[in-house]
Specification:
The protein has about 290 residues and is α/β, with parallel strands linked by helices. It is built from eight helices and six strands, in the order αβαββααβαβαβαα. The protein has one domain: Rossmann fold. A six-stranded mixed beta sheet has the order 3-2-1-4-5-6, sandwiched between helices. α2 packs antiparallel against α3. The protein is globular, with a radius of gyration of 22 Å.
Amino acid sequence: MAHKRDPSDPQWESQPGSLLQHSKTARHAFEHQPRPTTALTVLLYDVSSSMEGSKHRAAFEAAMVEASANEMNQTHFIVGAFSHDVFFPSRVPLGGSATIEALRQLPQPSGGTALYRAVVEAGAIVERVLDENPLQYDPRLAVIKVLTDGENTVDDGNEEVARAAVARLHARGCVVSLLQAGTDETAANTLGVPEAAALYWTDDSQTLSAACLAACDATNQYRRAVSFASSSGTITPAISFGYTPMHRQESLGNQPRRMAPPPPVHPQQSQQPAHPVPLALNRSETFSR
């Protein structure tokens, strides 16, 4: 007759086959399993007619710099563009060299601005990639960068759908950031992008280049902090927004614009709120042709 375990026995929880022991073993295995380390960046560019000329060239060149700089790193890209329609050369993540080829396939500026539809489509792509490749991509390392110089001009009813898509991505730990000309916060408010992830640039190619490259630098800083936190077992950092190439209009006055110096990043001391938007844009290097 088999011996029946007595749960009141203090040795029971350590005996092989106990439910508690199985639970502890499973939890230990989960906490120490290899974490996905590949980052995912979506470059979503406005190619409406108002981007024609130097602004389009500046955005394209900054994207080429970012793709080239990350070619040897564990970062994959999805490239998209929007005007009155939305265009993705590829809806699967690409490496650095393939990203450069995808950038060359983007259409020339023309037409209106289907901003919210573009965000909906980009969000759907990211969610699909994360769902289909959970062992490769860490959602906290997924960043969508939406660059636009104007408001949504295509009335297609996608405002609420886009806001819901952004909320789902934020809940998964992804970052949705907005790089926008001017100081109009309508798009950021409609999409639910907090001030921490909204960067406003003045309406010229020089500050557009600065904004794009500052966003690239900030994304890399954030990802290094996340990787540090994962490897050391500390709390995932939430990096606050610290760079504004364009001050709010009411505070700008006639004073010359000054770039804030980058604050130090101490990921081991940071605390993560429930659903942060963990993006810092805190340094700029002007890139021009």
